[in-house]
Backbone:
């Protein structure tokens, strides 16, 4: 498994884990991860929970957040995406740009 994205706690979303897509000195683009989505069609359901300590379902919100860099919290080193989930997220991001 290649490590393309890093996971951080996002202080803006009540410390939910987030996938860092891009960052610079002032802002970071991220996708929020949750275990309880509000509406199913606004989330990508992950096949494998990125948190190795949990077995419950996990979802990525289909919204690319742009937050100030100071809201980026602790790096979550143990979190990892499965190949299937990585492809699905990359497809979403590619479609989002076009």
Residues:
């Amino acid at each position: 498994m290649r490590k393309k994205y890093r996971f951080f706690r996002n202080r803006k979303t009540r410390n939910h884990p987030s996938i860092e897509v891009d960052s610079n000195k002032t802002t970071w683009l991220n996708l929020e991860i949750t275990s309880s989505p509000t509406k199913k069609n606004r989330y990508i359901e992950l096949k494998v929970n990125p948190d190795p300590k949990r077995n419950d379902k996990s979802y990525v919100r289909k919204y690319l957040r742009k937050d100030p860099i100071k809201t980026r919290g602790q790096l979550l080193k143990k979190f990892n995406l499965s190949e299937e989930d990585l492809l699905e997220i990359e497809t979403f991001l590619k479609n989002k740009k076009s």
Remarks:
- Helices lie at 83-97.
